[in-house]
Amino acid sequence: MTRSGINRLDHKGSGPVATSTLVNGHFPRRRGLIILLSSLGGFLLTVVWSAHFVDSVIGDSVANTILGHDAKGEPITGVLAGVAFAFATGVAGTFTACNIAAFGAVAPLLGSTGSRWSRVKASLKPLGWLAVGMISVSALYGALVGFFGTKMPQFSTAQTVAGTLNGRSIQSLVVFGVIGLVMVYLGLASLGVVKDPFRKISQRRPNAPMVFMGVLIGGFLIGRPFGLFRKMFRDAAESGNPLYGAAAFTLQSVGNIVVMALLFLALAHFTGGRLQRWLTENPTRATVITAAALIVAGVFTFLYWDIRLLARREIIPWYPTAPWA
After folding, report:
1. Would you say 17 and 2 are in contact if contact means Cβ atoms under 8 Å apart?
2. Which of 104, 106, 114, 276 is the most buried (most CB within 10 A)?
3. What is the Cα–Cα distance from 5 to 9, expressed in whole angstroms?
């Protein structure tokens, strides 16, 4: 199957044609139901999500275990300690609300067949292109933090005031709002509801979609309010060293996807190809998984960081949340 052609049929009308790694041309019949259920799933996730549990109970515990000391309490002393802190807190932030969308970004990695080693190699290649986009953004942003970080909104420690949005909140709202809407659009594109944005460029650059997904993951750092990340941000900003900032932010991003990458490599290596065969027997299944993952992640990201955030700041009157959230 080539990457050129239109979404539903090739030029001879012989069958579905993939236009990019996100759009395989096999569209399910009940697309409306998939969109509805996926959107509902993203919304319900915002209702039950507990930032305290994920950030403090899980995130802080993971970081403390990796570093061997109190990540929040102990100061960062030196460059080596700083890069170790960056990677550890990146891993700790795997399941935070500002990183959960990354799991939707790598859903297209599933589906390769062949020997065990060929499946692993087939997963490593898109992960590599994902890293290219991710590191480009995180390294550049880290370098900018090294130059100008003390003047950026994320450097501020000012407390939030009910009824207002401070600079940090506005930055999070804008960044994650855009990322969420982009992921929803890509999910709709994978279903053939809207135009595939990578249709033309994928003919010449087939890895462009994965590079772009890496850019989205790298962009998480630009809006991230995670407490341990902000500690790293302030350390990089106060250092005045753009090389240190670039290295620390790169390792933070790498840490963010380590668990996710290992999960997908394990699926490729240990399932004996059963999952891949199940997907290739009916390519529509891969479409459903990709679309659902992107829409759930996108709806969650937009609603959590825009609508629920406004409710928490008492700018809008109410947003439904579970008692523990």
Report:
1. yes
2. 104
3. 7
Span 205-257, pLDDT tens digits: 988 988 998 899 899 899 888 788 889 999 999 999 999 999 999 999 998 88
pLDDT digits (tens, 9 = 90+) for 259-283: 887 877 777 666 656 776 777 788 8
Q: Tell me, what amino acid is at 174?
A: V
Half-sphere exposure of 54 (CA within 13 A, CB side): 18
Using the 8-state DSSP alphabet, how is residue 191 labeled?
T
CB 10 within 8 A of CB 268: no
CB 282 within 8 A of CB 166: no
Best CA proximity match to 248, nearest among 109, 150, 96, 143: 143
Two structure tokens written together for 205: 């650059």
Counts of helices then strands in the chain (DSSP H, E): 14, 0
Helix, strand, coil shares, percent, the chain, to 5: 65, 0, 30
Q: Using CA atoms, how far apart are residues 37 and 84, in angstroms rounded to an integer?
A: 40
- At 20 the three-state DSSP class reads strand
Chain centroid to CA 138: how far?
A: 13
